[in-house]
Write a structure and sequence with these properties.
By secondary structure, the chain is α/β, with parallel strands linked by helices. It is 36% helix and 24% strand. The protein has 14 helices and 17 strands. The strands form two sheets. Strands 7, 8, 9, 10, 11, 12, 13, 14, 15, 16 and 17 form an eleven-stranded mixed sheet that branches. Strands 3-2-1-4-5-6 form a six-stranded parallel sheet, with helices on both faces. Strand 9 and strand 10 form a beta hairpin. Helix 1 crosses helix 12 and helix 5 packs parallel to helix 10. The longest helix has 18 residues.
């Protein structure tokens, strides 16, 4: 049987991992597919010493790969969105199937790309775009297809998880751990995408679309970063039985779909609360199967390359089949324009840290304001400070409340004369099976 010809565009970290897996495991992959997979051309601006490409055709113009008539599958691993989008659309126009690990490309331009692919009768697969080597896309599109997905919560950025883990285990400051993460190569020189939740928002956009059958809507994701989390917050949360994680969460609610990335308190006894370091995990709640957890390496050359090659294998198996027999790009033949809820309209629990002057009746004033906003308190932790003039931290956990009501309450509490510093507010999710 004729071999499947693959063109690799990009030979960086993920590109080298993909190349090495395809060459090292060629025999095993051929046994799975029933025919060989051949790297017929590589497009890369520069050589990568981690790959022996001496037996392969290499071009410095990646668009040569998209136009090469011998290439069946273009693998886009150059990153970014502008050139990558042009490259992918060029490959589709030339009748090629596409595999990509580019979460920003799919989250921001996926609707256009999938439409173009459908018109040309080709497929675009993107398993590696979310959670590295964890097969969460296949799980949602195929393994859980019988379920009405209720909610998904994920630790889907390894850099942020590494930082919070170090702060949790060693009591370190955010800035200190971030510097180490940059030295170790976990964080970029500009870490904004990781620590402010943009990277996780790209991934959550994709997950939510597959889970609920809605168009990709990256601009609708609420994002909040972890740079304001302090060792004190982590310690207080621990005393109350919680861990703080940078969570991506999407939920089907009565008024629409919640789509949010933010620091979140999670009960210590939840498995996902104990996912540490650079590891990723995605917790999915389906109506039939209940909660299922997917855990593994969320980044890295061969972890992500594993997902890329799995997509290549899937395409190799279906080459020549009619497109309407394939799994839809976002898992649903018919999508719905279900509204995305504004964050003001979500219901969740909250952790509040309020630094106050030591005066009688302050706690009573705070609880009165919360009561007037119909906010019920679950727990209060008031710490003593023995140094004169120091502010006293009051820690409050609330039951579920509308975010808009919480915003109003925080504004009123912040206006009290005894409250001198900005109030810290962290959302809390129990993530139970109910």
């Amino acid at each position: 049987m004729k071999s499947v010809n693959v063109g690799l565009a990009g030979l960086g970290t993920v590109g080298s991992g993909t190349f090495n897996i395809l060459t090292r495991n060629a025999t095993e992959i051929e046994r799975r597919v029933g025919r060989s997979i051949h790297i017929s051309q590589i497009g890369a601006r520069r050589d990568n010493p981690a790959c022996d490409t001496s037996q392969h055709q290499v071009t410095r113009d990646i668009f040569d790969v998209a136009k090469n008539p011998d290439v069946d599958i273009l693998v886009e691993l150059i990153g970014g969105t502008s050139v990558a989008k042009e490259l992918v659309l060029s490959a589709i126009e030339n009748g090629k199937h596409v595999v990509t690990a580019n979460k920003a490309l799919i989250a921001e331009h996926g609707n256009e790309i999938f439409s173009a692919a459908a018109s040309k009768g080709v497929n675009v697969l993107y398993e590696a775009a979310v959670a590295g080597g964890i097969p969460i896309i296949k799980a949602l599109r195929e393994g859980l297809a019988a379920n009405r997905i209720e909610w998904i919560a994920g630790i889907i950025n390894g850099t942020g998880n590494f930082i919070l883990t170090e702060m949790q285990e060693k009591g370190r400051e955010f800035s200190d751990v971030l510097s180490e993460a940059q030295d170790l190569g976990y964080a970029e020189a500009d870490p904004t995408f990781d620590v402010e939740g943009i990277d996780a928002a790209h991934k959550l956009t994709i997950i939510a679309s597959i889970a609920f059958g809605i168009p990709l809507q990256f601009d609708a994701v609420f994002t909040e970063g972890i740079s304001k989390i302090t060792p004190a917050d982590i310690e207080y949360a621990d005393q109350l039985g919680y861990r703080i994680k940078h969570l991506g969460l999407t939920r089907r609610s009565a008024g629409g779909i919640e789509l949010r990335v933010h620091p979140t308190l999670i009960p210590k006894n939840r498995l996902i609360a104990n996912v540490n370091g650079v590891m990723n995990a995605v917790l999915v709640k389906g109506d039939a199967v209940g909660p299922t957890l997917y855990y593994g390496a969320g980044a890295g050359d061969e972890a992500t390359g594993s997902a890329v090659v799995a997509d290549i294998v899937d395409l190799a198996r279906i080459l020549g089949c009619a497109q309407d027999h394939n799994v839809p790009a976002l898992g649903f033949v018919k999508t719905e324009n279900t509204p995305i809820l504004s964050v003001d309209l979500i219901y969740t629990c909250y952790y509040l840290r309020i630094e106050v002057q030591e005066r009688p009746g302050v706690l009573a004033e705070i609880t009165k304001i919360l009561s007037e906003q119909n906010i019920s308190i679950e727990a209060v932790l008031q710490k003593e400070v023995h140094q004169e003039g120091r502010l006293i931290p009051i820690i409050i956990l609330t039951h579920r409340v509308l975010e808009k009501d919480m915003n109003d309450a925080i504004s009123k509490i912040q206006a009290l004369d005894e409250v001198e510093q900005e109030i810290t507010r962290i959302r809390l999710e129990h993530l139970d099976a109910g």
